[in-house]
Amino acid sequence: MELEEVLRTERLILRRWRAADRELFAMMNADPKVMEYFPAVLSRAESNTLVDWVERHFAERGFGPSAAELKDSGEFIGFIGLSVPRFEAAFTPCVEIGWRLAAEYWGRGLATEGARAVVEHAFSELALKEIVSFTTVGNSRSRHVMEKLRMTHDAADDFDHPSLPAGHALRRHVLYRLRRDSASDKSGVHGTS
Ligand SMILES: CC(C)(COP(=O)(O)OP(=O)(O)OC[C@H]1O[C@@H](n2cnc3c(N)ncnc32)[C@H](O)[C@@H]1OP(=O)(O)O)[C@@H](O)C(=O)NCCC(=O)NCCS
After folding, report:
1. Residue from 116, 99, 192 nearest 151 by CA
2. 91-126: string of b/e by CB count within 10 Å (b at 16+)?
3. Each residue of 123-158: pLDDT tens digit?
4. What residue ranges line ligand 1, CB within 6 angstroms?
5. Mutation pick for ligand 1 pocket among 29, 144, 175, 176 (CB with most ligand atoms within 8 Å)
6. What's the pTM value of the predicted model, to 2 decimals?
C-alpha cells in the first residue's frame, strides 16, 4: 500500500479510486451546479481523462486527490486531496489542496472535515512545508473551506488562470496559503470549525 492510500475521519474514508467511482464522478462533472465555477461541464470522456490523470498522479508521486467515500453508506461522493498543478504561475511549483463533491452532500462540513485530515497528513507524513489552494474569485463556498482551514489570502498573490482566455469571467483567481510552521494548533486542523 502506498502512503496516503487511506485516510479516515469521523464520517469519511479518503482512498484510492476504484473503477466504479468513474460513473458517479462523470455524473457530478456533468452537473452545472457542481461545475458553476469551471469553464464547462465535462463529458463522460473528459471526466474519465481526469481520473486517468489522478491515477497517474498517485502512481508518480504517492499522493493525489483521493476518492471520498461516506463511512456509513460506502457511497462515493467526490474527491478531496493534494495535487501538483500542471500549469506555471508565480507560485508554482507547489502542492495544491482541492475538493469537489456531489451537490447533494454539500453544506454538511464534509469538505472541511476531509481537508483537515489531508492537511494534517501533508504536514506530518509528507513533510510538506506549504500547501496552497486556489479558485476563481467568486467561488465563495470553496473560499470558505480554505478560510475554515485557516489558510490565508494575500491579494498580492491573485492571478489570472493561464488556461482561461483574457476576458473570461472565471479567469481571475485567488490564492490561499498554509505553511507548516503556522499550522500547529492554530491551523484549525484539529479544531471543530
Ligand atoms: C466547495 C465544496 C467542496 C464545499 O463542500 P461542502 O462539503 O459543502 O463544504 P463545507 O460544508 O465543509 O463548508 C462549506 C462552507 O461554505 C459555506 N457556504 C455555503 N454556501 C456559501 C456561499 N454561497 N457563500 C459563502 N459561504 C458559503 C457553508 O456554510 C460552509 O461554512 P460553515 O461550515 O461555516 O457553515 C462544494 O461546494 C463543491 O464541491 N463545489 C463544486 C466544486 C468546486 O467548486 N470545488 C472547488 C474548486 S477550487
Report:
1. 116
2. eeebbbbbbbbbeeeeeeebbbbbbbbbbbbbbeeb
3. 999 999 999 999 999 999 999 999 999 999 999 999
4. 34, 37, 98-101, 106-112, 135, 139-142, 144-145
5. 144
6. 0.94
